[in-house]
């Protein structure tokens, strides 16, 4: 299959490209703007096997170039960090909103299947039970609101124009190549450096952890077997409160709990996410990696791949960290 993977230089996109090139022999075009979160390094071992187009999804000419001759589009490209969306929502509206629109128009013109990579955050928070694909959409942050708007636009292209659209809504991902603004890599790298571990609020917020290759394979199922116009949840096998995630990282890195520091809570912080993935299981997908095993693999990967994170931790990320947490990294 010839695929256009937008945002393929980011965390989940690069893991997806690796799976499609190595396990499916796909011909892949990557379109990526290379924001702070997108790096060619994320594709280091497959970069010679793909066509790389440096451009933005909201730029119709870059999209027209990249989409030429493909069978399907998979869109990962997005601004993805909730804390950044609270501080500066602007780029979230442009990329997640306008960018999705430009891609949909190009897919409509080309007449190709379109998969939107979305998130459990569109449903908002749930105290008990799990969200299904028909649960109401109640996003809380500018990030999740712009992702919700994008999902609705995608569905409208199915209903109005008959474009073959699909949506895959994943729960919190973790694994190799995740930018260290997100909970797990932030805590792993801070713990490895003896920096404080900033836990928001009481640390009892619960996330439904999904190993990144399980999400990549789930998106592959949706792409190949999903029914046009449908939404599929892709949830992880385990849920865990943040404080427990952090304590496991403390112990996996040989530290003690004195590194943990409770800090001011995130505004509008969703308490719990939980997805039911029954519908996707019906297509034969199953998560393979449990949290205990995946977390250990992730800690090991960060420990071993200093080449990957050293330039990040000594670059612009330092300023971001100081702005966000009011203290310098060690
Ligand atoms: P990421 O922030 O690591 O990567 C985003 C990628 O998109 C980067 O390569 C970046 O350069 C690129 N990009 C950003 N703006 C762009 C633009 N305007 N044009 C072209 N490229 C652009 O994100 P991620 O964690 O890999 O998430 C990928 C997708 O999966 C997103 O759509 C996100 O909403 C969704 N998702 C993420 C998670 C998670 O836990 N990280 C969970 C569920 C769904
Ligand atoms: P994050 O990785 O930002 O993902 P999301 O907000 O999309 O779920 O955060 C995961 C959880 O960890 C969330 O409840 C917020 C919390 N968190 C902290 O407690 N401290 C931190 O420094 C970060 C980045 C997140």
From TrEMBL:
NAD(P)-binding domain residues: 4-298
Keyword Electron transport (UniProt): no
EC number: 4.2.1.46
Cofactor: NAD(+)
InterPro entries: dTDP_Gluc_deHydtase, NAD(P)-bd_dom, NAD(P)-bd_dom_sf
Xref: NCBIfam families: dTDP_gluc_dehyt
Family (UniProt): Belongs to the NAD(P)-dependent epimerase/dehydratase family. dTDP-glucose dehydratase subfamily.
Protein name: dTDP-glucose 4,6-dehydratase
Origin species: Conexibacter stalactiti
Organism taxonomic ancestry: Bacteria, Bacillati, Actinomycetota, Thermoleophilia, Solirubrobacterales
UniProt gene name: rfbB
């Amino acid at each position: 299959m010839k695929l256009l993977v937008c945002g393929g230089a980011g965390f989940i996109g690069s893991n997806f490209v690796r799976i499609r090139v190595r396990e499916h022999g796909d011909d892949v075009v990557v379109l990526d703007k290379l924001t702070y979160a997108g790096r060619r390094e994320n594709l280091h071992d497959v970069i010679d096997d793909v066509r790389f187009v440096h451009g933005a999804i909201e730029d119709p000419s870059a999209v027209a170039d990249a989409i030429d001759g493909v069978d399907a589009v998979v869109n990962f490209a997005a601004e993805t960090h909730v804390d950044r969306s609270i501080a500066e929502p602007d780029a979230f509206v442009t990329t997640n909103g306008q960018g999705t629109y430009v891609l949909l128009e190009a897919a409509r013109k080309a007449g190709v299947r379109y998969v939107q990579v979305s998130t459990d955050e569109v449903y908002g928070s749930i105290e008990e039970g799990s969200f299904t694909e028909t649960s109401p959409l109640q996003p809380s942050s500018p990030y999740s609101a712009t992702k919700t708007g994008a999902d609705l636009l995608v569905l409208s292209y199915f209903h109005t124009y008959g474009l073959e659209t699909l949506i895959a809504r994943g729960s919190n991902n973790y694994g190799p190549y995740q930018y260290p603004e997100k909970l797990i890599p932030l805590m792993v790298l801070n713990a490895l450096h003896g920096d404080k571990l900033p836990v928001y609020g009481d640390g009892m917020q619960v996330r439904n952890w999904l190993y990144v290759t399980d999400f990549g394979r789930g998106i592959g199922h949706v792409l190949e077997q999903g029914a046009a116009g449908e939404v599929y949840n892709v949830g992880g096998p385990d849920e865990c409160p943040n404080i427990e995630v952090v304590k496991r990282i403390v112990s996996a890195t040989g530290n003690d709990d004195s590194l943990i520091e409770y800090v001011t809570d995130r505004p509008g912080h969703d308490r719990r996410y939980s997805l039911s993935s029954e519908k996707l299981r019906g297509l034969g997908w199953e998560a393979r990696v449990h949290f205990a095993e995946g977390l250990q693999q992730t800690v090991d990967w960060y420990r071993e791949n200093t080449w990957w994170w050293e330039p990040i931790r000594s670059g612009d990320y330092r300023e971001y960290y100081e702005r966000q947490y009011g203290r310098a990294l060690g």
